[in-house]
């Protein structure tokens, strides 16, 4: 039972609010506020209180024969709704049903009267209205899609490697119809994040005006003031492509995306319990199972209103923005430099760029199927289908100067002349390489790679490696790369470019091996010690 005298004194004499009084007495704020309202409405008592009145007397005067607060019989044990709210907001998958069962057990143990589950929930709702700052967003048809990750994760065994992989579940919901979409992911990086958002829009059959997301790194870089958040560049472009707007929720404010939080709760308390009993060996298997459960959920009638999620979605999808003709594709971004062969290297493949950009840096933006090349200023230069094999060359002859064999600083004549300084076998290899591709310019990097072996190895070693390549019919850069170290090892000191080693040591003091002899070092140390002693005696 509350200390009514103390509450009245603190409120009228000290001017304390019901919340402050409840905090000081470590009791429920709703009980204090209910009593103060009843006391003010009572015509039998007022402040100051009559001398000698007891708490029971106050209760009799305020509540009558059966003391009650706002219709509540005080003979019932009042739940600690502050603790209830703390558990509901901080403990994963906690429900009011669980907390009510705990409350009932405590009452039975103490032989106290307890509320029914319905009364427990009604009083909790009232407590929240009086004691918590709440936000309510009315769901507008076709306005929003809320997205988030579920807290519950799953595991699958890779059937090829036997590796145990974690599955994270992406969840999206339309707040008006409450239609839910979910998909498992083994990677949550930007390409996969874009893909699941595309799949959600396809599932919903259109694009909402707003997308409310959590502050995950795939979506938001910084969200300090909520008014002007800094979005992930790819996600921002995804929104622009789909003609929608990203609205991140306030940090640590789940009510800003209450629909998806509720959807996650529904999945974790229902569907996920069934799925966690299964063993999965592929992501496709997991998602097929998840889709079957979702179809049942979305088609099942609501418990507190007529029809199903899918019924209301049939109405809502008419209000969604039509899907774009092509879904947004995630783009990899790289800076690359146009080499002397008029190509850039990207993802172990080579793409030609117009001759006017020779030796300049360009911006590469690549999707899974297309490679787009832009100037540093953002002007489009050219576009290529993405290479399907390592080392593939894609060359447009129009990108090359008409006389590129003579005009370029890299050309056939240049490489042949350099090869002639090494030996006839190296020259023959270079000539063979120059004719190995449809366009000579596509071989220049390989020629440069072969001739650059002389930086580490001697010309004799390169000549011998080229001789072996010709005799075996394996005139490739890879064969020479693997062969020349063996040849150099067999040749000993003459197999390496010692002149380069001398250049590296130029200006340094080179010690011979004898200078590091242990006896010599000890003898020198003793001599220095004796000399120092003689100087001290003087």
Task: Explain the overall architecture.
The protein is an alpha+beta fold. 43% of the residues lie in helices and 15% in strands. The chain is built from 20 helices and 16 strands. The strands form five sheets. Strands 5-4-3-6-9 form a five-stranded mixed beta sheet, with helices on both faces. A four-stranded antiparallel beta sheet has the order 10-13-14-15, with no helix packed on it. Strands 11-12-16 form a three-stranded mixed beta sheet, with no helix packed on it. Strand 1 and strand 2 form a beta hairpin. Helix 2 packs across helix 3, helix 14 runs antiparallel to helix 15 and helix 17 crosses helix 18. The longest helix has 20 residues. About 4% of the residues have low confidence.
Share of helical residues = 40-55%
Strand order of the largest sheet: 5-4-3-6-9
Distance between the termini: 100 Å
Number of strands: 16
Q: How is the main sheet built?
A: 5 strands, mixed
Radius of gyration, in Å, reads: 39 Å
Number of helices: 20
Strand content: 15-25%
Main structural class:
alpha+beta
What is the arithmetic mean of pLDDT? 81
Low-confidence residue ranges? 65-72, 133-137, 504-513
What is the global morphology?
A: elongated
């Amino acid at each position: 039972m509350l200390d009514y005298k103390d509450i009245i004194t603190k409120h009228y004499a000290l001017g304390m609010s019901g919340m402050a009084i409840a905090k000081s007495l470590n009791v429920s704020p709703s009980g204090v506020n209910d009593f103060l309202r009843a006391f003010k409405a009572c015509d039998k008592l007022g402040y100051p209180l009559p001398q000698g009145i007891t708490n029971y007397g106050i209760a009799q005067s305020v509540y009558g024969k059966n003391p009650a607060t706002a219709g509540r019989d005080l003979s019932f044990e009042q739940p600690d709704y502050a603790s209830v709210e703390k558990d509901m907001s901080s403990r994963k998958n906690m429900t009011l049903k669980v907390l009510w069962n705990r409350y009932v057990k405590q009452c039975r143990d103490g032989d106290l009267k307890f509320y029914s589950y319905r009364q427990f929930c009604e009083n909790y709702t009232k407590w929240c209205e009086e004691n918590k700052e709440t936000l309510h967003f009315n769901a507008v048809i076709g306005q929003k899609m809320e997205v988030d990750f579920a807290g519950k994760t799953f595991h699958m065994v890779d059937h090829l490697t036997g590796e145990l992989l974690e599955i994270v579940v992406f969840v999206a919901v339309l707040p008006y119809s409450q239609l839910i979409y979910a998909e498992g992911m083994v990677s949550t990086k930007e390409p996969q994040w874009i893909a699941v958002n595309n799949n959600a829009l396809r599932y919903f059959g259109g694009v909402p005006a707003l997308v409310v997301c959590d502050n995950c790194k795939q979506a938001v870089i910084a969200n300090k003031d909520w008014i002007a958040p800094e979005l992930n560049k790819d996600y921002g472009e995804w929104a622009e492509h789909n003609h929608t707007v990203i609205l991140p929720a306030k940090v640590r404010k789940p009510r800003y995306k209450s629909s998806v939080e509720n959807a996650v709760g529904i999945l974790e308390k229902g569907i996920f319990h069934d799925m966690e009993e299964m063993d999965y060996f592929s992501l496709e298997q997991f998602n097929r199972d998840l889709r079957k459960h979702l179809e049942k959920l979305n088609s099942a009638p609501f418990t507190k209103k007529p029809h199903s999620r899918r019924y209301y979605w049939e109405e809502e999808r008419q209000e969604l923005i039509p899907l774009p003709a092509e879904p947004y594709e995630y783009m990899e971004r790289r800076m690359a430099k146009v080499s002397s062969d008029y190509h850039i290297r990207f993802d172990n493949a080579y793409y030609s760029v117009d001759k006017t950009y020779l030796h300049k840096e360009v911006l590469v933006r690549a999707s899974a199927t297309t490679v787009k090349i832009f100037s540093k200023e953002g002007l489009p230069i050219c576009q290529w289908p993405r290479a399907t094999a390592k080392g593939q060359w894609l060359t447009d002859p129009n990108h090359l100067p008409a006389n590129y064999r003579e005009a370029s600083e890299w050309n056939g004549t240049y490489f042949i002349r350099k090869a002639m300084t090494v030996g006839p076998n190296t020259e023959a290899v270079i000539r063979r390489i120059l004719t190995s591709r449809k366009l000579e310019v596509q071989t220049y990097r390989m020629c440069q790679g072969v001739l650059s072996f002389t930086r580490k190895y001697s010309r004799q070693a390169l000549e011998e490696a080229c001789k072996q390549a010709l005799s075996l019919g394996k005139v490739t850069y890879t064969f020479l790369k693997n062969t020349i170290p063996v040849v150099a090892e067999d040749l000993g000191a003459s197999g390496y470019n010692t002149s380069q080693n001398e250049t590296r040591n130029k200006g340094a003091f080179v010690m011979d091996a004898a200078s590091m002899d242990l006896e010599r070092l000890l003898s020198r140390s003793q001599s220095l010690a004796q000399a120092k002693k003689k100087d001290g005696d003087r």
